[in-house]
Write a structure and sequence with these properties.
alpha/beta, seven-stranded mixed beta sheet, 15 helices, 19 strands, binds N-carbamoyl-L-aspartate, binds zinc ion
């Protein structure tokens, strides 16, 4: 058999080891990994000597804003940024306008996402008023559900615990994971109202409105519902030491719960608010240095499973406001995650193998993309980030590919960057430049997603069972 391409001279990295090996690719898949003399013939050979070949990052938390907010981002700019960042698969969030709340909006988004440069999954919304749509959303190809326990950009009302329980009953049966914005709305709405009434509107008031109890309460409550129903859940953007406790406890009890954090919660803290002002505003807030320290530890030990970005671009006008309550929350991240985390590798905070575990292996497993994605091994998709661990760059808005470029990491010097990105065997980024005509190469991952068999619990007490008996 003749391969389409051989990447020769690189070092292949997985979550346990680094091996000097060539990689043969055919029809978008990995054909062989091994010594040069064991490689088949190939139409093309690409020398990657000096580079480390990582499974492309899988970022399960991006907001690409289309439809509805394309002045912030769209599917082309968002996936361009992903390709530049070594990210080969993204899962995109439903807080667009209209939100992805039923099959109509899912189909619309699938259409818009046809210009994607990298592969993608799509979240369906789980809210108070669309519980009846969840099965149809899954049927139409939603890859996971997103439940906003707290209000954030898009102002989607957070579901009551009652609606969430029914949502979890349905998700448990379907087997799809429910990703949670785990901040309890009633607590923070109350506190923000009190702060605003007192005329307090400096940047640090954002933390005061959302102290870690907001996340502790939400994670604990969601874990109880997941345990009861057998639903799989994922805690998005872990920001506090406090919420690690209910997360770790739930894992010990056998709840199917995973967690992610984002670079801002590891690399920024409350001492950065004076310098960055409203630019640092994000939900949940960047907290104290002791929170970052605890999250680093939990990430290294695996209590926090993965790194995502919560890529949430806005315009400079929307971000820079004197009154903190008027600044939009979030910032772009899909392009800067890998350079920032590789810098942490260069500094010895984590190993490269740990990074591969948290950026590719763990998300692939949690969201059913394993064994087709998340590894460089025969049979898998050839999704590869070829990284130069010594490459020095400085993060600057003008170089970012997102439409909403304003970032709290402006001016940060990084060591290590993806110099090529391949999605299913094709270069989408090469030598730090976008490859022309590759917009539209991205595909939805529905065909390869294989969630382990669902294990719903207490089904006899589910609303569906009880209402079904009635007639
Ligand atoms: C996100 C956004 O802008 O869509 N903002 C944020 O502060 N994280 C929404 C979210 O993930 O909460
Ligand atoms: Zn969120």
């Amino acid at each position: 058999m003749i391969a389409d391409m051989i990447l020769t001279g690189g070092i292949v990295v997985d979550d346990r080891s680094q091996t000097r090996a060539d990689v043969a690719i055919k029809d978008g898949h990995i054909l062989a990994v091994g010594a040069p003399e064991a490689m088949p013939d190939a139409r093309e050979r690409v020398d990657v000597t000096g580079l480390h070949l990582l499974p492309g990052a899988i970022d399960v938390h991006v907001h690409f804003r289309e439809p509805g907010y394309t002045h912030k981002e769209d599917w082309q700019t968002g996936t361009d940024a992903a390709a530049m960042g070594g990210v080969t698969t993204v899962f995109e969030m439903p807080n667009t306008h209209p939100p992805t709340r039923s099959v109509v909006e899912l189909r619309q988004k699938q259409e818009l996402a046809r210009k994607a440069r990298v592969d993608f999954g799509l979240y369906g919304l789980m809210a108070e008023d669309n519980i009846g749509e969840l099965e149809a959303l899954a049927e139409a190809g939603a890859n996971a559900f997103k439940c906003f326990m707290g209000n954030t950009f898009g102002n989607l009302p957070s579901p009551s615990t009652g609606a969430m329980l029914e949502g979890f009953e349905i998700a448990a049966k379907l087997g799809l994971r429910v990703s949670l914005h785990a901040e309890t709305w009633s607590i923070m709405a109350w506190r923000q109202k009190r702060l605003e009434a007192a005329g307090i509107h400096h940047p640090l008031a954002h933390i005061a409105a959302r102290p870690e109890i907001v996340a502790i309460e939400a994670v604990g409550r969601a874990a109880a519902l997941a345990e009861w129903t057998g639903a799989r859940i994922h805690v998005l953007h872990i920001s506090s030491a406090g919420e690690l406790v209910p997360l770790a406890e739930a894992k010990r009890r056998g709840v199917d719960i995973t967690g992610e954090t984002c670079p801002c919660y590891l690399m920024l803290d409350s001492s950065d608010y004076a310098r960055l002002g409203s630019v640092i505003r994000v939900n949940p807030p960047v907290r104290e240095a002791r929170d970052s320290a605890a999250i680093w530890e939990a990430l290294a030990s695996g209590v926090v499973d993965m790194i995502a970005t919560d890529h949430a671009p806005h315009t400079p006008e929307e971000k820079q406001r004197d009154n903190i309550w008027q600044a939009d929350c979030g910032f772009p991240g899909v392009e800067t995650q890998m350079p920032l985390m590789l810098t942490a590798v260069a500094e010895g905070r984590i190993t490269l193998e740990q990074y591969v575990r948290m950026s590719a292996v763990a998300p692939a497993r949690a969201f059913g993309l394993w064994p087709m994605k998340g590894r460089i091994a025969p049979g898998a998709h050839a999704d590869i980030a070829a990284v130069d661990l010594t490459r020095r760059e400085t993060i600057a808005a003008q170089n970012l590919h997102s439409r909403g470029k304003i970032t709290p990491f402006e001016g940060v010097e990084t060591t290590g960057a993806p110099v090529h990105t391949l999605v299913r065997g094709r270069f989408v980024q090469r030598d730090r430049k976008l490859v022309p005509n590759m917009a539209g190469h991205g595909r939805q991952v529905t065909d390869i997603q294989q969630m382990p068999a669902a294990a719903p619990r207490n089904t006899d007490q589910s609303l569906a069972a009880i209402l079904g008996q009635k007639g």
